Write the structure tokens for this entry.
Amino acid sequence: MGNYSIFSLIKNALDYHEGWPKAWRSPEPQAEYDVVIVGGGGHGLATAYYLAKEHGITNVAVIEKGWLGGGNTGRNTTIIRSNYLWDESAAIYEKSLQLYEGLSQELNFNIMLSQRGVLNLAHSLHDMRELQRRVSANLMNGIDSEILTTAQVKDFVPIINDSPKSRYPIMGGSLQRRAGTARHDAIAWGFARGADALGVDIIQQCEVTGIKQSRGKITGIDTTKGPIKAKKVALVVSGHSSMLAGMAGFRLPVNSYPLQALVSEPVKPVLDTVVMSNAVHVYVSQSDKGELVIGAGIDGYHGYTQRGSLHVIEGQLGALCELFPIFSRLRMMRQWGGIVDTCPDASPIVGKTPVDGLFINCGWGTGGFKATPGSGWVFAHTLANGEPHPLNAPFALDRFTSGLLIDEHGAAAVAH
Amino acid sequence: MLLIPCPYCGEREDSEFHQGGEAHIERPKDPDALSDAEWADYLFLRDNKKGVYLERWVHRHGCRRWFNMARDTATNEIKAVYKMGAKPPKGVTK
């Protein structure tokens, strides 16, 4: 793998860009690995990368059923922020944001991080108090966050409808300026390229069909490309976590739902930040191509269909036009759904399972993209040491037995 | 958009309904006797199945009555609806 630079660009321009090396190999699986990571999305690839880079464990395979980043990594609205309410969440999401800030340099791959700010709107006194509480909590945790008045919101986003006569008038907002967006595909590709260069085998088009254990200890997995032995197995499969856990003989407190998003036709730059509203239920940003990227809440019932119901889109577009009347004549170009794995307390599960040597990283629900590097970083530590890092220790599976839940519905909700 | 056959009202759009999660989860008869793990199992652990799933629905903006439904979560095909307290029809298993 060559280093990407201005010089490699010039060199490859000379032969019409036909000589670029592949960004990663596509090896056949070996018979045995120290660690097998199931799931080649952002979280799995980040785990593999940090396992090799931070812990020197390179005899690792990433097994992916489809193609890299073809699941939720490529199906989200690319929003990154760390303004969570509780200390445990703030710590892990802030770690992730800090890793994002250095990631393009670290991976030698442009992840197109754009710290354009994320603005959360309040439409009632209660909303406003909740935002003030969250901003105060953020400041106590050293996370940049500030309250804006309605006039400041209008100044920050001139196209927003600040009329006091709206059905849900804007009463203010909270802003995290270091938050923003990044290129979702680049996260998967950058981590894959980095992990591959350190010796990790990335195996695509390979579905796991069974998890093998002996006397409560993991021994390997069965796949559509044959059995693979492993000392440790890590499940990082988001929406399908319950199925993989089922193969290993235990249940999870996870429910899977379709979450939809859609993009508009491209228009000239009109929105230079991310705007979210829990109350009217929509969030929107503008991509570098000019398309509006629009998301909202999950569909109301369990499903694995990777699409969703039209009336959910109707609701979020109604909210969008309420906030931005200027968008009312935009046409929508594409719509898609991802299967999100939600937990009862809207917080993830990262750590050990009842099976010795089997680890799980799931339950990120509707907001996993922003956590990608942080999740991989703590999960790599967990895999390497057999015990969680202090950052992910509170997110253990056994919190549902102990009762130590981390209720992030307020900070998560729609705007996750 | 699903077309859901409410057992009381007939077919209606799914925006009239609300899903209430997995069906046939019984509240423990003697709660005081449960261990923490058994409570966790009752409160939080779910099958979350890909395939035919038995779930509770309420016709919120209609007759407001609860019923059970068997739906394939991979295709959204509705296999059966049946009343609260009834067992799933033959051929539909949990």
About this structure: Chain A touches chain B at residues 240, 242-243, 246, 251-256, 300-305, 309-311, 344, 400-403 (CB under 8 Å). The CA atoms of residues 383 and 404 of chain A lie 23 Å apart. The mean pLDDT of chain A is 95.
